[in-house]
Each structure stands twice: as C-alpha cells, then as structure tokens.
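Late entry, written up from scratch paper. The run itself happened at the end of the previous shift, but nothing got recorded in the book at the time, so transcribing now.
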Amino acid sequence: MKTEIIPADIKSKSLKETRDEIDTILTKLENKETNLGESIGDYKRLILLNKHVDELFKKKFKEISDKKIND
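Output as recorded:
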C-alpha cells in the first residue's frame, strides 16, 4: 500500500479546521453542477484531510491509553 505524505498545510490544521474544510469540499462535490472531472484535486485533498483526521484520532487514542497505563 502506498504511503502518502500529508502536506504541512494540512498537518497544521486542528480537527475543527480539518472538518470544516472537509465539509466545504463535500458540499462542492455534491453540487450537481460541479464538473467531477475537474474535481479530482478536491477529491485527492479530501483523502489527505481524512488521513489527517485518522492520525489525529490515533494520536489522541495513544495519549489516552498511555495515561490510563500510567495511572
């Protein structure tokens, strides 16, 4: 499986900022007047944003797990 590097402009986003951008892209992609052929860049960014959210959740899960072990 190919590992994609998440760009710095995405990595620096908070969960809320990431979610807001995901919502914006989804709204754009769901618009019936949107040319999906021209939206490939948006789709690729959406995937990277999703990976960032996944990394944020994994990091938070590890923090919680470590805290429980140390308590």
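The mean pLDDT is 90.
(Scratch paper discarded after transcription.)
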